[in-house]
Amino acid sequence: MESQTIVEALFLGLLEGLTEFIPVSSTGHLLLAGRFLGFESNGKTFEVLIQLGAILAILTVYFGRLLKIARDLPSDAGTRRFVAGILVAFLPAVVIGVLAHGFIKAVLFESPMLICIMLIVGGIILLWVDRLDLKPRYTNVMDYPLSLCLKIGFIQCLAMIPGTSRSGSTIVGALLLGADKRSAAEFSFFLAMPTMAGAFAYDLFKNRDVLTLNDASLIAIGFIAAFISGVFVVRYLLDYVSRHGFALFAYWRVIVGTVGLIALILAK
């Protein structure tokens, strides 16, 4: 491995962990950064597989909470409803993700102009929603009804367009459907676990024949970096969102999308 490639993999891993759980589109950031750095991976597999680091980050931070859920599952109806809600919200992504996998990787992932536009549009929507005087009806993720979870699950599928943001779409959807900011972000965390794990496993299976030892080494570097930065974000995001909302992320999206568009136009 060239040292430059190792540094790029390390940078992209840090970028993945820092952006996965905030509403700015980690995939969009990775694809744009990889394009401008000249970083190429077989089938864009690196960008998906380093998400394992972010998955383990959230599992680490939420281990105690997940252990309690597992213990309460056999005896507590509320816990069973919550787990069922996460699974219901996950199902639309499974169906649409499998059916559209080829199109997403071959077309959408190769459209940097689209990514920049979605970053800007998503930023404007996030800023608009953040300024609405919404009256939350749901403040605890354990109390989300199944119908709400299913609607959030369908909204999450918008994130299959890179630049949209999985966390952004689920958080905005939950807010508009009656959730408060903290529980919307927390539900997004929980929904990320099966969604990201499923995307990781499916992409690994689809690309098992094109991965090389060099790919594995770079993915390992990106994974470790994503894990470390992901732990930091998960630990502090909920408190930040509760106090300050999402305006910072909205402005960041607009800035990155605009700079990306300008760079792409000048590069032509």
Automatic annotation (TrEMBL):
Chain ranges passing through the membrane: 48-70, 82-104, 110-129, 141-161, 187-205, 217-238, 250-267
Domain of life from the UniProt record: Bacteria
Catalyses which reaction(s): di-trans,octa-cis-undecaprenyl diphosphate + H2O = di-trans,octa-cis-undecaprenyl phosphate + phosphate + H(+)
Note: Bacitracin is thought to be involved in the inhibition of peptidoglycan synthesis by sequestering undecaprenyl diphosphate, thereby reducing the pool of lipid carrier available.
One annotated GO biological process: response to antibiotic
Bilayer topology: Multi-pass membrane protein
Protein name, entry field: Undecaprenyl-diphosphatase
Record key words, sorted: Antibiotic resistance, Cell membrane, Cell shape, Cell wall biogenesis/degradation, Hydrolase, Membrane, Peptidoglycan synthesis, Transmembrane, Transmembrane helix
GO cellular component, one term: plasma membrane
EC number: 3.6.1.27
Family named by the database record: Belongs to the UppP family.
Enzyme class: hydrolase
Organism per entry: Phyllobacterium myrsinacearum
Annotated compartments: Cell membrane
General function of this protein: Catalyzes the dephosphorylation of undecaprenyl diphosphate (UPP). Confers resistance to bacitracin.
Organism ancestry: Bacteria, Pseudomonadati, Pseudomonadota, Alphaproteobacteria, Hyphomicrobiales
GO MF annotations in UniProt: undecaprenyl-diphosphatase activity
Signal peptide (from-to): none
